[in-house]
Amino acid sequence: MVMGKKLISTGLLLLLFMIVADTVWASDGVTDSGTTAWMLTATTLVLLMVPGLAMFYGGLVRTKNVLGTMMHSFAAMVVIGVLWPFLGYALSFGPSVLGGLVGWNPDYVLLRGIDDSILDSGIPEYVFAMFQGKFAIIAPALIAGAFAERVSFRGYVVFIALWSLVVYSPICHWVWAEDGFLFNMGPAGAIDFAGGTVVHISSGISALVAALFLGSRRGYPKNVMHPNNLVMTMIGAGLLWVGWFGFNAGSAVASDLDTGRALTVTQIAAAAGAGAWMIIESLLYKKITTLGVVSGILAGLVAITPAAGVVQPGGAMVIGILASVFCFLAIQVKNRAGYDDSLDAFGIHGIGGIVGALALTFFIREAWMADAAVAAGGSWTVWQQFGVQAAAVVITIVYAAIVTIILLVIIEKTIGFRLKETDEMTGLDQSLHGEHGYGLINLN
């Protein structure tokens, strides 16, 4: 009898628990701890990319500029780290204003309006805002590679602050906000899963414009400017590769099949890009360089970024290979044309982003195209999607180029951007920061 009562009581408790649990998990605004844990991890991985970029760029410049170059990446963490929660998130993900040019939500200023907000994906909006903020940080830091060794720190800080507000935030809004016009172009929008257009094309084109506007480093290309520490560059590339898993897989804003797919194709494209660059160098130069390998890694990573959510492993491999080929060719063109994109920011990020944004069209999953056709109310072809992708690429290039040149002119005419000759010859480390990166100083 006692045993029967215990069984009945236990059964009732289990039933009550199931009812309560079902109510809790079915209710809106409840945090999904698993997805939140992954997004916290992804956010951390993306931030890791910034010191990784600092090491990558820092190792490629001359000894006298290593600290000044690394400071460009760290300054982006500081400046955009403050500016993003203050205005950037509101401009990027607020409702469209000014005819869709940008977003705006006063409740997002200093993130005041999201204190209790849980997104449909089950993560606190704080986490999403911080995840997106890391993209906003690394985008202007990438540009610094184009004008390394020849700009003032003050001018750079003002430039990245303004660029983030008037270039990055509008493009981010167009592509990723639910009412952005590129997000809604065609039945499924312009595909940019993790930032090929928003981050890499925008920063790559801006980098090219800046390199052309500022002119070459003094002595370039007559004087050979050797990297000071390729070991550090390789470590930086490794950190970028690891961090890129958060960059791409985190952009699923989930912890599910799409996350696993994005992570897998990211790995494959990076390896394929590096392998292709190794083959190119072995055929042309009979040697495989460490700089070539890390360049191939980055080319593959950049190109798969917009495609990570829609292609399969085979497509990722082809995209990685194509990226290496086109990025390698872009660097050869730069060398012949004679313009000084110091660390090939345009050659890798601009070209790689364009290749990925366009090439993904031909490797989209059939199920994705079928869904797009249904959304279109009939059929939707690969070439129609290619047109959408091309339009997004062209719009991004034109807008980023025009606004960047305006910013550069304003900064150069007011506070100055290009370093004085004496400061440039002395080096960024000593002239701007009063320090030396290494104990043994070599000013050449």
From TrEMBL:
<feature type="transmembrane region" description="Helical">
    <location>
        <begin position="126"/>
        <end position="148"/>
    </location>
</feature>
<dbReference type="InterPro" id="IPR024041">
    <property type="entry name" value="NH4_transpt_AmtB-like_dom"/>
</dbReference>
<feature type="transmembrane region" description="Helical">
    <location>
        <begin position="345"/>
        <end position="368"/>
    </location>
</feature>
<feature type="transmembrane region" description="Helical">
    <location>
        <begin position="228"/>
        <end position="247"/>
    </location>
</feature>
<feature type="domain" description="Ammonium transporter AmtB-like">
    <location>
        <begin position="37"/>
        <end position="438"/>
    </location>
</feature>
<feature type="transmembrane region" description="Helical">
    <location>
        <begin position="155"/>
        <end position="177"/>
    </location>
</feature>
<dbReference type="InterPro" id="IPR029020">
    <property type="entry name" value="Ammonium/urea_transptr"/>
</dbReference>
<feature type="transmembrane region" description="Helical">
    <location>
        <begin position="388"/>
        <end position="411"/>
    </location>
</feature>
<feature type="transmembrane region" description="Helical">
    <location>
        <begin position="73"/>
        <end position="91"/>
    </location>
</feature>
<feature type="transmembrane region" description="Helical">
    <location>
        <begin position="315"/>
        <end position="333"/>
    </location>
</feature>
<feature type="transmembrane region" description="Helical">
    <location>
        <begin position="291"/>
        <end position="309"/>
    </location>
</feature>
<keyword id="KW-0813">Transport</keyword>
<feature type="transmembrane region" description="Helical">
    <location>
        <begin position="36"/>
        <end position="61"/>
    </location>
</feature>
<protein>
    <recommendedName>
        <fullName>Ammonium transporter</fullName>
    </recommendedName>
</protein>
<dbReference type="InterPro" id="IPR001905">
    <property type="entry name" value="Ammonium_transpt"/>
</dbReference>
<keyword id="KW-0924">Ammonia transport</keyword>
<feature type="transmembrane region" description="Helical">
    <location>
        <begin position="259"/>
        <end position="279"/>
    </location>
</feature>
<keyword id="KW-1133">Transmembrane helix</keyword>
<comment type="similarity">
    <text>Belongs to the ammonia transporter channel (TC 1.A.11.2) family.</text>
</comment>
<keyword id="KW-0812">Transmembrane</keyword>
<dbReference type="GO" id="GO:0005886">
    <property type="term" value="C:plasma membrane"/>
</dbReference>
<dbReference type="Pfam" id="PF00909">
    <property type="entry name" value="Ammonium_transp"/>
</dbReference>
<keyword id="KW-0472">Membrane</keyword>
<dbReference type="GO" id="GO:0008519">
    <property type="term" value="F:ammonium channel activity"/>
</dbReference>
<feature type="transmembrane region" description="Helical">
    <location>
        <begin position="197"/>
        <end position="216"/>
    </location>
</feature>
<dbReference type="InterPro" id="IPR018047">
    <property type="entry name" value="Ammonium_transpt_CS"/>
</dbReference>
